[in-house]
Amino acid sequence: MKRVIIGLMIAGTALVAKPYTQADRIADMNKIAESMNIIQSGFFYNNYDTVEAGVDQLTTTIANVKPIQKEAQEQDIMEKFMDEKYQMTNKIVKKISTKSLTILQRFKAGDSAEAVQAYTKIMGQCMKCHREIRHW
């Protein structure tokens, strides 16, 4: 009985869930840029609460980022493999999530140099995506 109910809930969620679009991605990117600015302000003012707010916003927003519907529904297997947008997007999201938690841990421990280094690595992941996937 539990399996049937859980199955129906999952199926209902899948039917209601809207696809991730380019507009959604742009909104998330703007939110990520805002989060990075908040973290940077926390560094400049040596304020843990500000850094924590930025990291919370960043981790929440980055969890929403995924390949857009066009990339996720690519039918040609060879094109999907060669393009690598799908795999690369997921890998970058994971790296940013990990490094954002490193920022929080290092800054809380008083190691601001390591926190800034993790921040710089996140910026590197952002630029990697914009260069290789978005063709900047």
Task: Describe this structure as you would to a colleague.
There is one protein chain. With 136 residues, the chain is mainly α. It contains 7 helices and no strands. The termini are far apart.
List the helices and strands and how they pair.
Blueprint: H1 2-16, H2 22-44, H3 48-62, H4 69-72, H5 77-83, H6 85-108, H7 112-132
Give a quick summary of the entry.
With 136 residues, the chain is mainly α.
- How many separate helices? 7
Mean pLDDT: 84
The ordered H/E elements are: HHHHHHH
Work out the strand percent: under 5%
In the CATH hierarchy, what is the class?
Mainly Alpha
Number of strands: 0
In CATH, what is the homologous superfamily?
A: Cytochrome c/b562
Shape-level CATH architecture? Up-down Bundle
Radius of gyration: 18 Å
| Shape by Cα distribution | elongated
CATH structural fold name: Four Helix Bundle (Hemerythrin (Met), subunit A)
N-to-C terminal Cα separation, in Å? 52 Å
The description of the largest β-sheet is: none
* Total domain modules: 1
Which structural class matches the secondary elements?
Answer: mainly alpha
Helix content: over 70%
Name the poorly predicted regions.
none
Give the tags.
136 residues, mainly alpha, Four Helix Bundle (Hemerythrin (Met), subunit A), 7 helices
